[in-house]
């Protein structure tokens, strides 16, 4: 990094910090209104009773989020700035919710099968666009936010969004209770889009100086470099294995709403309240776990978060009444907060700055098969065994990953410096 670039970053450090906190907070609020843990499963359940289709929601999300990074990482690394890429790619994250809202409000009488295809197709566009954005956005944040403030930044960003999401959950509960389906979902989608427009404005105001790009490498050369990287960095390889096991366990969270609807026939308004509780826990979790990670370490926070995530699955199995799901979704919110917060930061910490985009790409690629194919397999299994059995199996896998991360993976030196 040149001295002029460092001077620009120092001059705009406070501005960039708060603009991107507000960007992420507005985005988090918007996406909470169509949460993949609560509202989207409700929409799918209203359109089909096939359990395996519930597995398509996390499968689409993770395939879209993770796989494009394999192709974009070398292209992003060759650019002097990350912001232009992000501003173009992220448009595809926002427009699908505008389209979804308009369709559900103006054509509510379409056959359920047609609406289901439209919902999943638009969600796939959102997820793929998120994947095209993710590496550039992550590296943008790593460039403009000082390393020692990563934990506070991610915690405050998602925590503030979670606080807004509490109100969003109450709003969702009211809309779902008072408006007929699917118009209620259409209204939520339009509010989501409006929040994302506000988010985009904050992002566009970010100041990023140009830095020396890495020369573009042919894609096959990039692929050939992945194996040596994993052989060289044993700790990172072990971390990826453990994170994949934890991620597979956390897949169960995507089936909790469907399980509650099936067992207890909870009203739609309660799904909005579940969202509010989850977002409140996510807010507290992001702020609290972010501060804890900066003192205790991100590896330890990831272990703690995995434990909370698996506890949610066990409680869902044991729940005698639907009110237990308020506690369950509180655990989901806290667990997902810590998983995202420390999962991101540990990848940053393992990677040398010059290889950061490659490390992010490798991390996404390693997680993709489990995160994309796993939910579909779990959904198919649930068709034959019910949700209880899959909660048991996923909790076991997640606990194994958590234990191995705690005892078998050394925290990277840069993580200790960040903490």
UniProtKB/TrEMBL annotation:
<feature type="transmembrane region" description="Helical">
    <location>
        <begin position="362"/>
        <end position="381"/>
    </location>
</feature>
<feature type="transmembrane region" description="Helical">
    <location>
        <begin position="325"/>
        <end position="350"/>
    </location>
</feature>
<feature type="transmembrane region" description="Helical">
    <location>
        <begin position="387"/>
        <end position="407"/>
    </location>
</feature>
<feature type="transmembrane region" description="Helical">
    <location>
        <begin position="240"/>
        <end position="259"/>
    </location>
</feature>
<feature type="transmembrane region" description="Helical">
    <location>
        <begin position="187"/>
        <end position="207"/>
    </location>
</feature>
<protein>
    <submittedName>
        <fullName>Major facilitator superfamily MFS_1</fullName>
    </submittedName>
</protein>
<feature type="transmembrane region" description="Helical">
    <location>
        <begin position="21"/>
        <end position="44"/>
    </location>
</feature>
<feature type="transmembrane region" description="Helical">
    <location>
        <begin position="56"/>
        <end position="78"/>
    </location>
</feature>
<keyword id="KW-0472">Membrane</keyword>
<dbReference type="InterPro" id="IPR036259">
    <property type="entry name" value="MFS_trans_sf"/>
</dbReference>
<keyword id="KW-1133">Transmembrane helix</keyword>
<feature type="domain" description="Major facilitator superfamily (MFS) profile">
    <location>
        <begin position="187"/>
        <end position="419"/>
    </location>
</feature>
<feature type="transmembrane region" description="Helical">
    <location>
        <begin position="85"/>
        <end position="107"/>
    </location>
</feature>
<feature type="transmembrane region" description="Helical">
    <location>
        <begin position="150"/>
        <end position="175"/>
    </location>
</feature>
<dbReference type="InterPro" id="IPR052528">
    <property type="entry name" value="Sugar_transport-like"/>
</dbReference>
<dbReference type="Pfam" id="PF07690">
    <property type="entry name" value="MFS_1"/>
</dbReference>
<dbReference type="InterPro" id="IPR011701">
    <property type="entry name" value="MFS"/>
</dbReference>
<feature type="transmembrane region" description="Helical">
    <location>
        <begin position="271"/>
        <end position="289"/>
    </location>
</feature>
<feature type="transmembrane region" description="Helical">
    <location>
        <begin position="301"/>
        <end position="319"/>
    </location>
</feature>
<feature type="transmembrane region" description="Helical">
    <location>
        <begin position="113"/>
        <end position="138"/>
    </location>
</feature>
<keyword id="KW-0812">Transmembrane</keyword>
<dbReference type="GO" id="GO:0005886">
    <property type="term" value="C:plasma membrane"/>
</dbReference>
<dbReference type="InterPro" id="IPR020846">
    <property type="entry name" value="MFS_dom"/>
</dbReference>
<dbReference type="GO" id="GO:0022857">
    <property type="term" value="F:transmembrane transporter activity"/>
</dbReference>
């Amino acid at each position: 990094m040149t001295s002029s670039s460092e001077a620009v970053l120092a001059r705009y450090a406070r501005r960039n910090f708060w603009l991107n906190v507000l960007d992420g907070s507005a985005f988090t609020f918007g996406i909470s209104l169509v949460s993949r843990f609560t509202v989207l499963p409700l929409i799918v359940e209203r359109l089909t009773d096939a359990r395996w289709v519930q597995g398509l929601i996390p499968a689409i999300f993770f395939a879209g989020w993770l796989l494009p990074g394999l192709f974009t990482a070398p292209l992003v690394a060759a650019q002097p700035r990350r912001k232009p890429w992000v501003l173009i790619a992220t448009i595809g994250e926002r427009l699908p919710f505008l389209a979804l809202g308009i369709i559900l409000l103006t054509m509510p009488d379409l056959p359920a099968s047609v609406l289901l295809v439209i919902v999943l197709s638009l969600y796939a566009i959102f997820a793929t666009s998120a994947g095209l954005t993710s590496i550039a956005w992550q590296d943008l944040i790593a460039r403009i936010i000082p390393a020692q403030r990563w934990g506070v930044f991610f915690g405050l960003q998602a925590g503030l969004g979670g606080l807004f999401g509490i109100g969003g959950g109450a709003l969702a509960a009211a809309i779902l209770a008072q408006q007929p389906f699917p118009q209620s979902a259409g209204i939520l989608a339009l509010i989501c889009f409006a929040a994302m427009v506000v988010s985009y404005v904050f992002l566009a105001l970010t100041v990023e100086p140009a830095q020396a790009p890495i020369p573009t490498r042919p894609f096959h050369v990039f692929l050939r470099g992945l194996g040596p990287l994993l052989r060289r960095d044993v700790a990172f390889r072990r971390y990826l294995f453990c994170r994949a096991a934890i991620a597979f366990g956390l897949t169960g969270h995507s089936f909790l709403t469907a399980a509650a609807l099936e067992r207890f026939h909870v009203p739609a308004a309660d799904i909005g309240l579940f969202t509010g509780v989850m977002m409140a826990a996510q807010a507290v979790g992001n702020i609290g776990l972010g501060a804890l990670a900066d003192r205790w370490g991100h590896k330890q926070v990831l272990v703690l978060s995995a434990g909370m995530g698996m506890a949610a699955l066990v409680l869902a199995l044991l729940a005698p009444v639907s009110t237990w799901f308020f506690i369950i979704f509180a655990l989901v919110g806290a667990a997902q907060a810590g998983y995202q917060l420390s999962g991101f930061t540990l990848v940053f910490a393992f990677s040398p700055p010059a290889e950061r985009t490659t490390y992010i790409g490798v991390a996404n690629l390693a997680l993709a098969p489990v995160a994309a194919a796993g939910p579909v397999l779990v959904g198919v299994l649930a068709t034959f065994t019910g949700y209880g059995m899959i909660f048991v199996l996923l909790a076991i896998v997640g606990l194994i990953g958590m234990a191995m991360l705690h005892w078998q993976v050394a925290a990277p030196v840069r993580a200790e410096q960040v903490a």
